Amino acid sequence: MPVLAPDLLRDYVTRIFEAAHVPADDAAAVAAHLVEANQYGHDSHGVIRVERYVSDLADGTVQPGAPIVVDRESETTAVVDGGWNFGPVIAHRCTEIAIAKARATGVGIVVSHQCGHVGRLGAYAEQALAAGMIGIAMVNNHGGSLVMSPPGGVQRRLSPNPIAVGIPTGDPEAPFLLDMTTSVVAEGKIRVARNAKKPLGTGWAVDGQGNPTTDAEVYYGNPPGSILPMGGESNYKGFGLAMMVEALAGALSPAGTSRANGRRGGNGLFVMVIDPTSFREPGEFEASFGGLVEWVQSPPFAPGVDHITVPGEPERNARRARATEIPVDDETWRQLTGAAATVGVPPLEI
């Protein structure tokens, strides 16, 4: 299993995208986004995506350098046409717009269509956090790329429909950062398990007849399986959240909701940014919410427990652990170097 320094991996991925005729600034931004996902422990949204992104460039699914256009807007809202540019480029710009509107009015809401796969959704909540604001982001799969069946169903009807929420706590090094799918897991985690030749977690997926499976190949089989909504016996809760995401990230923009024969390879995006100082004096919101974090983490603890983990901590811990070395499983490395070869980038010396 290759283990690479983040800078080396970032440079390699950048060169791959540049060789595929992606503008230099965008190539660097997308590479940085993917490598950061690996550093945060979200390998499902890291360099495992390079092979697919290069394929999307080759077949025209992604249009590098395409203009990002505001279709319509008000003081607090905007609808953005991404022109099928790279998702991380579009989502970063949409979040910039939402932050600017929140600074001016207290809240900014932006939806985007014709947007490529945005990658790790939590990055955009973090972008709002860096501006001292609350960030909320959601995506569907632009109507296509269905992976999840509803409770009681056996066919794919929805995308994973993730939600990310960033909330400042008063400690810039320890914000609250929720980054979750409304399905049990993201499809990328099934891809990671397949590449690593590991079984899926119990309760993650069912086969094409609705029977539980822990075999990734069965999930990708014919007929295909599907991922379940989160919640176990209460999976109607995950299903309900997924439907809510469809409304905000899909129906609210021209991207549309999940449907038969929907456009694959993209995301319908919803970003909302809230300026706490429009509601409280500076610092009051952060002190209040930060106090809650301290309260829920306080003892007593259950037997065998010495710490309560809150959203954002696992990513911070992973980033510390991967500050100088990022492991890449052998199959993902094979796919990555194969994608590089298709655009004429030589193998990386490691």
Uncertain spans: none
Secondary structure: helix percent: 25-40%
Assign the CATH topology of the largest domain. Ribosomal Protein S8, Chain: A, domain 1
Largest sheet: 7 strands, mixed
The CATH architecture of the largest domain can be named as 2-Layer Sandwich
What value does the Rg take, in angstroms?
20 Å
CATH class of the largest domain: Alpha Beta
Instruction: Give the N-to-C terminal Cα separation.
Output: 11 Å
Could you tell me the strand content as a percent range? 15-25%
SSE topology string:
EHHHEEHEHEEEHEEHEHEHHEH
Shape: globular
The CATH superfamily title of the largest domain? Malate/L-lactate/L-sulpholactate dehydrogenase, NADPH binding domain
Number of helices: 11
| Spatial ordering of strands, largest sheet | 2-3-4-11-5-6-7
